[in-house]
Amino acid sequence: MNLHQFNYPKPFELENGKTLEKLTITYHTAGKLNEQKDNVIWVCHALTANSDVFDWWKGLFGEDDLFNPKDHFIICANVIGSHYGTTNPLSINPKTNTPYFSDFPTVTIKDMANAHQLLAESLGINQIKILIGGSLGGQQALEFTLLNQTKIENLVLLATNAVHSPWGIAFNETQRLAIEADESFYANKENRGQNGLIAARTIAMLSYRTYEIYEEKQKDLNNVYESFKASSYQKYQGQKLANRFNAYSYWLLTKTMDSQNIARNRACLEETLNSIKAKTKVIAISSDILFPAKEQKFIADHIPNASYHEINSSYGHDGFLVELDALKEILKDLA
């Protein structure tokens, strides 16, 4: 994929009334936009992913995969607040000439969608063949569709919701408390709050996976009384994220996820979903405890032209990244 940057030439107003004086959006593309500009696949990434969809959704996106650059123009934009090049807490605040750190303003899912819309307009894209996203990415895809400024032909929503649940918010708040318990987080310096971030990620893993998959993958032999596989796995996953992400972005983006409510400043949830005209596939993971299948059923029940699909998996929420064969079967008619 090819890396690009878009610099918005005006202050960017956020949903809460605050502004980002400078907005830079980093994004990846693959393939070519055809003459009719109707071969666009727009991918919305999840919480800590980046805009290189070939990197983290291999098997679904790639040179020889279901969605490939020979047939499609594939684009994925890094979200506001994330670690990978779009304006985020480590960016320079023009008002202070220092990084924002914890002073970065609150960003909502709708803000992310509005930024996507600006990027689409800059590229001359006014129609999207497939708009796809899972988890936080699915939240973005819903809001992007509801802006009604770009024609969406096919909408694919995986393991996501129309309004974030108290359960999901509680998980995120617990992670933020772990980050805030690391006193270095308040130093407002790069690479601070990392121990808190490690702890936060280990909490998140318990919402991403399941009892069954830990039992299958992390079970010890009977003669073990310390240095458990599950303990090592948690530490590994925490450190793995800390090596590539920063605590300020993670703290901010969990708040962004909590902001999801497509009915805010609109009609009720049902009426808002009912306004979506795109042909929609809603995909759930049977064992997902973070975004339970009932949340996807609710979406599918209220979008007029929607179909509901449930993948039987023991991987929990992460199943939308893991169960590639099942996903390909559901999505093959779109390729």
UniProtKB/TrEMBL annotation:
Active site location: 135 (nucleophile), 288, 317
Domain AB hydrolase-1: residue ranges: 40-323
InterPro entries: AB_hydrolase_1, AB_hydrolase_fold, HAT_MetX-like
Name this protein carries in UniProt: Homoserine O-acetyltransferase
Gene3D superfamilies: alpha/beta hydrolase (3.40.50.1820)
Function: Transfers an acetyl group from acetyl-CoA to L-homoserine, forming acetyl-L-homoserine.
Subcellular location: Cytoplasm
GO biological process assignments: homoserine metabolic process; methionine biosynthetic process
Subunit structure: Homodimer.
Highest taxon above the source species: Bacteria
Sites where the protein binds substrate: 201, 318
One Pfam short name: Abhydrolase_1
Assigned EC number: 2.3.1.31
Organism: Chishuiella changwenlii
UniProt KW Amino-acid biosynthesis keyword: yes
The entry's keywords: Acyltransferase, Amino-acid biosynthesis, Cytoplasm, Methionine biosynthesis, Transferase
Broad enzyme group: transferase
Family listed: Belongs to the AB hydrolase superfamily. MetX family.
UniProt pathway annotation: Amino-acid biosynthesis; L-methionine biosynthesis via de novo pathway; O-acetyl-L-homoserine from L-homoserine: step 1/1
Record flagged with keyword Cytoplasm: yes
GO cellular component: cytoplasm
GO molecular function: homoserine O-acetyltransferase activity
Reaction equation(s) it catalyzes: L-homoserine + acetyl-CoA = O-acetyl-L-homoserine + CoA
Gene of this entry: metXA
